[in-house]
Design goal:
By secondary structure, the chain is an alpha+beta fold. It is about 35% helix and about 25% strand.
Length: about 400
């Protein structure tokens, strides 16, 4: 039997307002961005006040993570709650750090993505400690840096902390997210031969050869969309993101470089996606001996998926029913989150977050009641999950 826990909505709103009022624009995205230091100091102070043991460590110079531990008595499963502290930039926003509440909505950069989720985690910790709740397994409250750019924070975190399961509080409108797509960045280079523009017998145009590749890439992109879609995240996709080639108007281009983003669905790998691109190169080279090209993957993040019958899924569903009176919808996301890194580290992982609007847009808000509801769901989940098994 789960004992009654009561989240304090006033505490949750005050924490959320304070978090939004602290500038934490990712400096890797925006030159001169404030980074996570001020938010990290506030989160660490809150966790210490609640009686958790707290460690602050740098994922990179000046980029702190905060890890709080509510120690269990032993013998139970451990649970990790995760939110990122950084935000995207604020260009075009009238009052990005006001934290103003209007009609139940709190406005400001990061309110929805994802300081609402972070405030809910602190609200859950406050409810558990205020009630003197006894957990058998450890509960970890983790606030990380740099998710919006390279996820250095969670990469660093999984080297330090292990838990049986994890919940990422990215925004989902209180639906239960069980999957999302991954991505791979590829560099394709075609090689030509530089020559004066008048010497057509000597020059080999790398840009023209890239044009041939792009024509075939367009066919692949259309074919990807026609593949059997994943039931939660849809089909794979790709786009030609960046293109550069040539050195002067009157010179045949010696090199042309294309950067591609390939969005992957659960089950796809870097090797499989690379082989699809290499097959295009091989066909073009077979048709023309002057065609030379290379395909290089240079950054990748895995897709994420957790089974519908996973133990954590059942526990979170029960907690949502307790709070909202009905089970959550199951969903997938097309964008990537740190959930993939936690799952790759061996933690059974789900994503659930508050309601709101305006991811990365000029107007961003989070529904305040949904943040309190999420705090209640997280507290109830911890009490259920961190029991003796």
């Amino acid at each position: 039997m789960v004992s009654a826990l009561r989240v304090d909505p006033i505490y949750v709103q005050s924490v959320l307002q304070r978090l939004v009022r602290l500038d934490s624009v990712n400096p890797s995205l925006v030159a001169g961005g404030a980074g996570e230091a001020a938010v990290a100091a506030y989160v660490a102070a809150q966790l210490e006040r609640l009686g958790l043991s707290v460690q602050v460590s740098e994922a990179a110079p000046g980029r702190p993570n905060v890890v709080g531990r509510l120690a269990g008595q032993g013998g139970g499963r451990s649970l990790l709650l995760n939110a990122h502290m950084d935000t995207v930039g604020v260009a075009g926003m009238a009052a990005p750090f006001a934290g103003e509440v209007r009609d139940g909505r709190l406005y400001g950069r990061g309110a929805y993505d994802m300081k609402g989720g972070l405030a809910a985690m602190l609200g859950a910790a406050q409810a558990l400690t205020a009630a003197g709740a006894t957990l058998q397994g450890d509960l970890w409250i983790t606030a990380v840096a740099d998710e919006e750019y390279a996820s250095l924070g969670t990469e660093h975190l999984v080297q330090q902390v292990r838990a049986d399961a994890a919940i990422v509080t990215e925004p989902t409108d209180l639906a239960l997210c069980r999957a999302h797509r991954g991505f791979i960045w590829f560099r394709v280079e075609t090689v030509g031969r530089a020559a004066h523009g008048s010497r057509f017998r000597e020059g080999v145009d790398a840009n023209m050869r890239m044009g041939r590749f792009l024509a075939e890439l367009d066919k692949l992109e259309q074919a990807l969309r026609q593949r059997l879609p994943h039931p939660l995240v849809g089909p794979p996709s790709l786009h030609a993101a960046l293109l550069s080639g040539g050195s002067a108007l009157s010179v045949y281009a010696a090199n042309c470089t294309l950067q591609i983003e390939r969005r992957t669905i659960p089950g796809e790998t870097v090797d499989v996606a690379a082989a699809e691109l290499q097959a295009i190169v091989d066909r073009l080279a077979a048709a023309d001996p002057t065609f030379q090209a290379s395909v290089t993957p240079f950054f990748a993040r895995s897709p994420f998926e957790v089974a519908a019958n996973a133990p954590l899924v059942a526990v979170v569903e029960a907690a949502v029913v307790d709070c909202l009176g009905a089970p959550p919808a199951h969903m997938g996301q097309t964008f990537w989150t740190d959930a993939a890194l936690l799952a790759d580290a061996g933690m059974e992982t789900v994503i659930i977050g508050p309601r709101g609007y305006g991811l990365h847009s000029d107007e961003e808000w989070v529904d305040v009641q949904s943040v309190a509801d999420l705090a209640q769901i997280l507290a109830n989940t911890a009490q259920r999950y961190c029991r003796q098994v």
